[in-house]
Design brief:
Strand order of the largest sheet of chain A: 1-2-3-5-4
Number of strands of chain B: 5
Largest interface: A-B, 24 and 22 residues
Number of domains of chain B: 1
Helix content of chain A: 25-40%
Radius of gyration of chain B: 13 Å
Mean pLDDT of chain A: 89
Number of strands of chain A: 5
CATH topology of chain A: Heat Shock Protein 90
Structural class of chain B: alpha/beta
Oligomer: heterodimer
Order of helices and strands of chain B: EEHEHEHEH
Shape of chain A: globular
Distance between the termini of chain B: 30 Å
Mean pLDDT of chain B: 97
Structural class of chain A: alpha+beta
CATH class of chain A: Alpha Beta
Number of domains of chain A: 1
Strand order of the largest sheet of chain B: 1-2-3-4-5
Strand content of chain A: 25-35%
Largest sheet of chain B: 5 strands, mixed
Strand content of chain B: 25-35%
Helix content of chain B: 25-40%
CATH class of chain B: Alpha Beta
CATH topology of chain B: Transcription Regulator spoIIAA
């Protein structure tokens, strides 16, 4: 967290009805941090995919659990830390499908990887799994 | 999410209005399932009033297209907003679906 500034911490229930709120908050935070509109929209999609994965896989569609979102701004990057209290999976299980092998699922992780610079999943967090997503900022 | 539908020249047109994510995919899936159960072969989904879509929505369209493919049907997409089109391009699904600028063009393409 060196030189980092924790902008906002947001805790919501794992109900899909709150995804829109999460998306809009992320978009607004990214705009405040100086990202372009297109970049802010990308980050909005990234946080949606990450939280949807928590609802589907970590909480197995239990809509009553907490999702904790932390947003950090550093000199050179923007970070989003998504924490939950659900099932831990092996980091190797977090993977996207082959993009040209068209199937209904497996696109969420692909989108997250495409639109961020770093994606790190840590199943050993004190209270549960954590997903760290980093987007480097350009000189502004 | 609001869903309207009509049949025009033998084509089932589904008009979606709202954001497509996991809070709305079950509702849309129910509509598609009814048409698949009836073995409808020509479906156009009008996305002109869909400002946002995530991978749950993409997955639903892929699933529906593949189900329809089993009996020779096809789902075509029309009216994608710039933000929605960008997600299709990002995931290279523009190569998988027939996509039209206007609903009318998509309907006529089935002739």
């Amino acid at each position: 967290m060196k030189n980092g500034h924790n902008l906002i911490k947001l805790e919501v229930r794992s109900h899909p009805r709150y995804l829109r709120l999460i998306r809009n908050a992320t978009y607004d935070i990214a705009m405040i941090c100086g990202f372009t509109e297109d970049e802010a929209k990308d980050l909005r999609l990234v946080i949606d995919e990450a939280c949807t994965n928590v609802i589907k896989h970590s909480y197995q569609y239990d809509y009553s659990k907490p999702i904790i979102l932390n947003f950090f701004l550093y000199d050179d990057r923007f970070e989003m830390l998504i924490e939950d209290c659900g099932m831990k999976v092996r980091p190797s299980q977090i993977r996207s499908r082959e993009i040209d092998n068209v199937k209904p699922g497996g696109l969420g992780v692909y989108i997250i990887k495409k639109l961020t610079d770093i994606m790190e999943y840590d199943p050993t967090g004190k209270d549960g799994p954590r997903l760290r997503l980093v987007k480097y900022t350009k000189k502004r | 999410m609001e869903i309207n539908s009509r049949e025009e020249n033998g084509v089932n047109v589904i008009i979606l209005d709202g954001e497509v994510d996991i809070s709305s995919t079950d509702l849309i899936r129910g509509k598609f399932k009814k048409l698949i159960d009836e073995k409808k072969k020509k479906i156009v989904v009008d996305l002109a009033n869909v400002p946002y879509i995530d991978s749950s929505g993409l997955g639903l369209f892929v699933e529906t297209m593949q189900e329809m493919g089993k009996y020779g049907g096809e789902l075509k997409l029309a009216g994608l907003t710039d933000d929605v089109k960008k997600v299709f391009e990002l995931t290279r699904l523009t190569n998988f679906f027939s996509i039209f600028a206007e609903e009318k063009e998509a309907i006529e393409s089935f002739k």
